[in-house]
UniProtKB/TrEMBL annotation:
<dbReference type="InterPro" id="IPR011650">
    <property type="entry name" value="Peptidase_M20_dimer"/>
</dbReference>
<dbReference type="Pfam" id="PF01546">
    <property type="entry name" value="Peptidase_M20"/>
</dbReference>
<dbReference type="Pfam" id="PF07687">
    <property type="entry name" value="M20_dimer"/>
</dbReference>
<protein>
    <submittedName>
        <fullName>Zn-dependent hydrolase</fullName>
    </submittedName>
</protein>
<dbReference type="GO" id="GO:0016787">
    <property type="term" value="F:hydrolase activity"/>
</dbReference>
<keyword id="KW-0378">Hydrolase</keyword>
<dbReference type="InterPro" id="IPR002933">
    <property type="entry name" value="Peptidase_M20"/>
</dbReference>
<comment type="similarity">
    <text>Belongs to the peptidase M20 family.</text>
</comment>
<dbReference type="InterPro" id="IPR036264">
    <property type="entry name" value="Bact_exopeptidase_dim_dom"/>
</dbReference>
<dbReference type="InterPro" id="IPR010158">
    <property type="entry name" value="Amidase_Cbmase"/>
</dbReference>
<feature type="domain" description="Peptidase M20 dimerisation">
    <location>
        <begin position="213"/>
        <end position="311"/>
    </location>
</feature>
Length: 410
């Protein structure tokens, strides 16, 4: 594999972005479509046959000597959040491309077919719904739900599909079946600081965390800040702050399980300096790979809500907005990836993924694993996101070795 060629691939793909800081390549936009078309051409030049499925996923296939055998697949996504970095999702796609180029360079043939998949709409930035392409491929996409999706400009998902030459009513035809894919492994930047902190080159993902999410509304009384004595106040902000601190305390008690709790949104009304806040809304994300640990933090939230409501005489209600299941990676693939790292003398760490990925959905379709490479300072979803080419190449070597072992070199 060629480091300079990989670097050039990143430079070329980074040109496909809308205006604004960093990378802005939202799902199903013309910019993403142009980037997709560029990559499809590169994959074809590497000897793969390329098609687009009914969800807009790109499936590039390198035939094996036995085309009827299930494929060994890899890939990721190229759509981005707003003001993104160059590596999230893109790293997995461009490394997959480089692996395929290297096989063409060396004339390597395999028994099983190989596939590179570029998933559509992994990020929720545009339609507030994530991993739509892999959900469609694994048969987990709810058609009724997709019809309700609209972006901030009022464009529906159905309209976006039409702009891409797709029909939302046919998205169910993107579904694939267990006998089609032998294994799927996604390479991704870690998006966190663990590998760098522990001086490891490769993360072998054991499980992908999933969130329980809540909306907590705190009702108090808006009063004049100068004329209302402290002991007569029903301050919604302070009540909400107590709840937020209770979440932090409960999550810290679960450090051994890696469970985290976040108040990502905390808004108050009326929102003036001279008015005691009369209402507050908190949006809470509690996630981890251990369901029991995650539930303990959720229980602590409920306890805090009841205690704060009583102590401060506030009207508080909470609504669970989602409850997703953590996903375990295939144990055989985890063991094989660790063995490959050992064989190559690469420092590895078995670890969970706190972020969601297309692999969550692929795990319901076929044996699935993930490879992480380090992220500088743990930064992601940010123009400052960075992973060196040398670190990416180490990940590429592990991915290539896994795919060739699974596909059986002739």
């Amino acid at each position: 594999m060629k480091l300079d060629r990989l670097r050039q691939s990143f430079e070329e793909l980074a040109k496909f972005t809308d205006e604004g800081e960093g990378i802005n390549r939202l799902a199903y936009t013309l910019t993403e479509r142009n980037a997709r078309d560029y990559l499809m051409k590169q994959l074809e030049l590497a000897g793969l046959t390329v098609q687009i499925d009914y969800a807009g996923n790109v499936i590039a296939r390198r035939e094996g000597s036995s085309p009827d055998l299930p494929a060994v697949a890899t890939g990721s996504h190229i759509d981005s959040v707003y003001a993104a970095g160059e590596f999230d999702g893109t790293a997995g796609v461009l490394i997959s491309l480089e692996v395929m180029r290297s096989l063409a360079d060396e004339g390597i043939k395999t028994d099983h077919p190989l596939e590179v998949i570029i998933f559509a709409c992994e990020e929720s930035a545009r339609f507030s719904a994530s991993t739509l392409g892999s959900k469609a491929m694994s048969g987990r996409l709810d058609p009724a739900y997709t019809r309700s999706l609209t972006d901030k400009n009022g464009i529906t998902l159905m309209q976006a599909f039409e702009e891409n030459g797709l029909d939302l009513e046919e998205v169910h035809l993107a579904r694939r079946f267990r006998d089609e894919i032998k294994a799927f492994v996604e390479l991704h930047v870690e998006q966190g600081p663990v590998l760098e902190k522990q001086e490891k080159s490769i993360g072998v993902v054991s499980a992908i965390a999933a969130p329980i999410r809540f909306h907590v509304h705190v009702g108090g009384t808006a009063d004049h800040s100068g004329t209302t004595p402290m002991n007569y106040r029903r301050d919604a902000l302070l009540g909400g702050a107590e709840i937020a601190l209770a979440i932090e305390k409960a999550a810290r008690a679960e450090l051994e399980h890696g469970t985290v709790g976040t108040v990502g949104v905390f808004s108050i009304e009326p929102g003036a300096m001279n008015i005691v806040p009369g209402a507050a809304d908190l949006y809470v994300d509690i996630r981890g790979t251990n369901r029991e640990s995650r539930q303990r933090v959720a229980d602590a939230l409920e306890t805090a809500v009841n205690d704060v409501a009583k102590a401060r005489e506030l009207n508080i209600w909470m609504d669970k907005t989602s409850d997703e299941e953590p996903v375990q990676m295939d144990s055989t693939i985890v063991a094989e990836l660790k063995a490959i790292c050992e064989e190559k003398g690469v420092a590895w760490l078995e670890m969970p993924s706190g972020a969601g990925h297309d692999s969550m959905n692929m795990a319901s379709l076929c044996p699935t694993g993930m490879i992480f490479v380090p992220s500088k300072d743990g930064i992601s979803h940010n123009p400052a996101e960075y992973t060196s080419m040398e670190q990416l190449m180490e990940g590429a070597e592990i991915l290539r070795a896994f795919m060739l072992k699974q596909a059986k070199i002739l």
